[in-house]
Specification:
Length: 123
């Protein structure tokens, strides 16, 4: 969770940050431990400063093909959705996640943004 928090805040501090941009969260390779609920709740609180600079025009899509990642991401959504100005979705389909953030899944290379990866990048 620390890595996720640091990544969001580093992105937010960068010169290219735009609060209108969408976020794709790929949970296809996620693993969870027995304290995950508490970690998710804490992450939601720690990212409040990030939520404050995102606009209602931005969206966040969680791509979660696995049952546990799907359930945990839905839990995260329920914890933060009343605190954020933007829409959040949790889906099992790459195409649904891409469409939610305005990316045509048929566009060349679009599906490579999410899903299984090799050590050298997307498969």
């Amino acid at each position: 969770m620390q890595e996720i928090w640091e990544a969001f805040l580093a992105h937010q501090a960068g010169p290219d940050f735009d609060g209108n941009r969408h976020v794709l969260m790929d949970q296809s390779d996620c693993t969870f431990h027995n304290t995950f609920y508490e970690d998710v709740r804490n992450l939601g609180m720690r990212l409040e400063s990030h939520y404050a600079v995102r606009t209602e025009r931005s969206r966040t899509a969680f791509y979660c093909p696995g049952d546990i990642a799907f359930g945990m991401s839905r839990m995260y959504k329920s914890i933060v959705e009343t605190k954020v100005p933007f829409q959040i979705t949790v889906v099992r389909s790459v195409d649904e996640a891409l469409r939610f953030v305005g990316i045509d899944p048929e566009r060349p290379g679009a599906r490579a943004l999410l899903g299984p990866r090799s050590p050298d990048g997307p498969l």
